[in-house]
């Protein structure tokens, strides 16, 4: 279990020689706590996708430190990261990373089979609520971007997690589907006492009373 993520004086190496605008994250000390709701807002190119990748351990091209419960993640090996990604940190990247030749159901079940954390009946309920049940057996590569985002949202919560990272998760959703997605994600997080960290460049996930951070 991870209870706290601390970001200390971090900055993407590509920004080191640049003058960056004031930030709640870059060149700052920020603590993200399990159970919190965080909305990180940034202009395009501000580094929000990089931040998610740093926290997830997918990239290391930054200065400063990222600590999980006081441990510097720079010291973690691949086995430690694999366990963290399976059990503690869920991640929805901006590019979604769906398998286009697989159906919506197959994409979601492929993730869920890693831990068998969510019953099929719950996945079906989520798909119905978010309006993609009728696309259950349709290849993701032939879906609209908005439909693909909804598939990816459900897939992202099909695991145990203490923190979930969502990089522009609703950029192609209307307000109603945004609200439904936010409710489903929030319910999944509340069940586990988990934190939600979502990024946005203008269409934020409609969380209740999030802590807003400028990047």
Mean pLDDT value: 97
Strand order in space, largest sheet? 6-7-8-3-9
Radius of gyration, in angstroms, nearest whole number: 17 Å
- Span of the ends, CA to CA: 27 Å
Low-confidence region ranges: none
Shape: globular
Count the E strands.
9
Q: Give the proportion of residues in helices.
A: 25-40%
The share of residues in extended strands comes to: 15-25%
Order of helices and strands: EEEHEEHEHHHEHEE
Number of helices: 6
Described by strand count, sense and barrel closure, the largest sheet is: 5 strands, parallel
Classify the secondary structure makeup into a structural class: alpha/beta
Q: How would you sum up this structure, described in words?
A:
The chain has 215 residues and is of the alpha/beta class. 32% of the residues lie in helices and 22% in strands. The strands form two sheets. It has a five-stranded parallel sheet with strand order 6-7-8-3-9, sandwiched between helices. It has a four-stranded antiparallel sheet with strand order 2-1-4-5, covered by helices on one side. Helix 3 runs parallel beside helix 5 (145-156). It is globular, with a radius of gyration of 17 Å. The two termini are 27 Å apart. The model has no long low-confidence stretch (mean pLDDT 97).
């Amino acid at each position: 279990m991870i209870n706290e993520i601390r970001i200390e004086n971090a900055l993407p190496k590509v920004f080191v020689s640049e003058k960056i605008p004031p930030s709640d994250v870059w060149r700052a000390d920020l603590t993200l706590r399990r159970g919190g709701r965080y909305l990180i807002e940034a202009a395009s190119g501000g580094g929000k996708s990089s931040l998610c990748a740093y926290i997830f351990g997918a990239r290391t091209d930054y200065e400063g430190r990222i600590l999980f419960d006081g441990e510097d993640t720079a010291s973690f090996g691949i086995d430690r990261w694999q366990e963290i990604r399976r059990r503690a940190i869920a991640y929805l990247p901006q590019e979604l990373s769906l398998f286009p030749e697989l159906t919506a159901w197959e994409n979601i079940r492929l993730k869920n089979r890693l831990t068998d954390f969510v019953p099929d009946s719950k996945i079906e309920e989520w798909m119905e609520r978010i309006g993609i049940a009728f696309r259950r057996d349709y290849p993701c590569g032939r879906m609209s971007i908005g439909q693909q985002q909804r598939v990816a949202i459900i897939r992202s919560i099909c695991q145990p997690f203490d923190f979930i990272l969502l990089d522009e998760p609703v950029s192609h959703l209307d307000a109603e589907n945004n609200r439904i997605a936010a409710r489903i994600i929030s319910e999944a997080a509340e069940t586990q006492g988990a934190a939600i960290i979502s990024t946005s460049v203008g269409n934020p996930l409609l969380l209740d009373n999030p802590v807003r951070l400028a990047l």
